[in-house]
Write a structure and sequence with these properties.
heterodimer, A: 434 residues, alpha+beta, 5-stranded antiparallel β-sheet, 4-stranded antiparallel β-sheet, 6 helices, B: 661 residues, 31 strands, 28% helix, nucleus (chain A), WD40_repeat_dom_sf (chain A), WD repeat (chain A), WD40_repeat_CS (chain A)
Chain lengths: 434, 661
Amino acid sequence: MKVKVISRSTEEFTRERSQDLQKVFRNYDPNLRTLEKAVEYTRALNAAKLEKIFAKPFIGAMDGHIDAVSCMTKNPNHLKGIFSGSMDGDIRLWDLATRKTVNQFPGHQGAVRGLTTSTDGDRLLSCGTDCTVRLWKVPVLEMTDPNESNEDCSKPLAVYVWKHAFWAIDHQWDGNLFATAGTQVEIWDQNRSEPINTFEWGKDTTVSVRFNPGEPDLLATSASDRSIAIYDLRMSSPARKLIMQANEDCNCYTYDGRKLNEAKLVHKDHVSAVMDIDYSPTGREFVTGSYDRTVRIFPFNGGHSREIYHTKRMQRVFCVRFSCDASYVISGSDDTNLRLWKAKASEQMGVLLPREKRKLEYLDAVKERYQHLTDVKRIVRHRHLPKPVYKAAALRRTMIEAENKKDERRRAHSAPGSIPVQPFRKRRIIKELE
Amino acid sequence: MFLLFCGCVVTKEEGDETLALGATSKNCEGHDKVSAPVEFPRDGCVATKEEGVEGFPRDRCLWESSRREIRGFSFCCAAPCRSSSLSHPVAVARRQLIYRSPFLTLARQNGVSVLIPCVVVVARRLYSPPDSGKSRTINSNRMISATQQKIADELDVRARKYLRGDGANLETLRDKKLKGQLVNREKLYGQSAKAAAKAEKWLLPSDEGYLEPEGLEKTWMIKQESIVREVDISSFRKPFDMILPDLGPYKLEYTPSGRYMVMGGRKGHLAMIDMLNMNLIKEFQVRETVRDVVFLQNEQFFAVAQKKYPYIYNWRGTEIHCLKEHGAALKLQFLDKHFLLASVNKSAQLHYQDVSTGVIVANYRTGLGRTDVMQVNPYNAVIGLGHSAGKVTMWKPTSAKPLVTMLCHFGPVTDIAFHKGGHLMATTGMDHKIKLWDIRKFGLLHSYTAHAQMLDFSQKGMLALGNKSHVHIWRDSGNQDYKQYMSHEMVKGYQLAKVCFRPYEDVLGIGHSMGLSSIIVPGAGEPNFDSWVANPYETKKQRREKEVHALIDKLQPETIMLEPTKIGTLKPRRTKANPTKKEIQEEMESAIDAAKNITFKKKTKGRNKPSKRTKKKEEGVFKAKRPFLEQKTEERPFKRQKKEEVELPKALQRFSRKKAQ
């Protein structure tokens, strides 16, 4: 007879000294853990609820301006620095960590309309309705005392005076040039007092200009004649133009720059004009500020926003920016304040222990696995909306439905094929010019 | 030529580097450094460190490593290695395969930590005698691939358990993006299953128990005394007889980790024992009939079914609650993931109470007479009840009717037991039958003629049967055919009250009229526990933490269902949306037949006339017919519309119809 029975000695399965870690033994046999799916589902549900409970995105407001904040730009050299310009000509540099003004750059007579920094973070450029562009030296933030900087920033390094009021400014990502928008689009060199190149397409005012980060010579503008134009610095005339019917129709459109005949995606959710857009440094998301007093965050490939931020006191949002580490969002609004938000509403800030991190990863995975179940979906998707936004959204929905219905009826009562079904991605495009 | 080594990653000399084993360990005199398991390679040649040694030709360095191996461990395959100086590598390889399992135990006896993985390393071209031709190389090549195949197959078999069913059928998917995502997901599942299978193969600290007869011996002839003589000293203490003649028969129950036991004598004697060091934690008398005892979420609380009501006590013996709503409960069960205490009382009512909130979740009348046969299916938390008419019913707290009613015996059902895997149920009845059921399809698997009053399944699927003063243990002999494995006789006159396997141990606890006994049943328990599931060596802090986690993950009663893996899956699409004409016709005929066959009660004078009865019957038939007739009239115009739709645009249809008329 051969016999063996399970026999465990306590010493082998318990720790030796009280300072030691407890021993852990694993057996992954599925028969030992019953009702796995039910447990996972419960965890997913709880994780969704906890996420809602911990969703406190608002960190703080930064007040100091005495008029509406009109424009902002990040300081690429300092994670915690941000510049803002207001309607009364005030430009400020903020320290996000302490939420205080570090520097002021006085000089503009009217509203500051555009702000931009050079890619190396040394120079700040501002433009305004007083027909000037000013070049400033960016003060170096000291680690010891962030509130005091020893450099005097009250004088700009250069002032470029031109014929018309400016609406926007942007610096080239890789180079010394910058572009301004107003009645025309001008390309400037920092070392010259006059623009080196001027573009014009139509008579209407250009309201915004942005350089392409990947292609340093490309820039895009939008104008008040409902047009979007792409310019190439290497050519003497504008490259392409697109005219859309989408004048303040509350949507954002993503285009492939090579194919302007159709939007890649339409991001719908806002109920009033979208005032500003900024991409996250990761490129996977972008934040929008709107005239409906809300800030929304959209995935780059999603039609609807994943997040909406609002407070009672926040008025029309004129500018929004992602922070350089993609974990914060800053909004500037009509109520003269800048507001600091978390990019992920329920994210835990600060250092996470590896165990905490693993736990959060697990909960995210479980949530993702059960995201289609009604309860989980309902909790994850739910956002509290301000009453005006909620009502306006409902109204918009009925209007869009009515419009669609009308289209259908029209199609039913006309000859087959005479009114083709057009996707919304194409519907707003009037024409494309080369 | 190839050579297989089976070795452990510990070498003897200080500062020595183990070669060809994929891991280094220094200071190995005390055997305290243990490496991580080394991945078994797919392509046959491994040796991650093989290239790490410089200055040696490859043959030489592997030769060195093998010799060190031999010096470090004098295990079975080493001897032929050294003596024959590798002139018969094939033979060595074969020997090694044979002696693989002894090696593991040998390593353990040498005092090396049990966690040491057994690493199989295949070293390529260790030694090639000059006369070896090409054909031989090919031969040995084939051999390696065969052994490798064997191991891979074994891992695949092991991994199947961890895959938890088949993967999704991706062939039918048309969405390419989704298909790509799912393919990745399936690959990940496969990898994790394989990793778990490897961990099971190499990393588990304990082995299963066994009892092997030699010669003409039979396992059921082996007495407890002879087993006790053979086993080690810690197992020697496990079988015992506790004589408590006055307050018996005793019911008993273990915690899920098998550490604690609570016992309740019929005449009111309650005691809780720590089975690890045989400490009596608390003993007290309630001076009332005790019908059943059950542990709640941990060893801190237990519920006792007493004369009038069930009570909850803590480990100190303090009465915490009296559960009056349950009435005189006959049997208690606790669903630990749901925190539900279930009871069936004298008036055959089934109660579910949430012990974390105190809410009575459900209260159902079974309507099948008084019973004290109740068992939870651990696989899906459905409760099985056995009734005196031979029926077994299965219940969940969210339905007032039983989910399943099975006629299992011709006579009262005396006990039921569920296998841990969730597909096997054993029932026993007064008709001298023991039956095994497949509860996936509710079909009978085997029926045995034997008498038993109580049943219990062990973690490894052994079935204990208790009858009067005999205990039999049956074992699956393949194809779910249970054969006798062991038997044990109590002193004549002892009446058994409960048999209960102790989890994670090879022990069967027996409660009887003269106290308690426990016997050794080799191979009954799961040898390896998981610290996060049930830990026999749990500390106070771990227990508290686990309780909090259990409460956070508490399952709602709605999650109890016959097939628990259905949660989160899609409803199967109905293949047939509309029934065919023939089906409708048949349905109508059956409805008419049913209406015709209704027999009416005898009514009072005047209303029982034959004419009135026939009229009533006709009305019934018409009522049964009506929905089908209405359906027909509804369908007809719809069909005609569809035909015309093809011809003209919708907007013009109204004009055309006028024209046609």
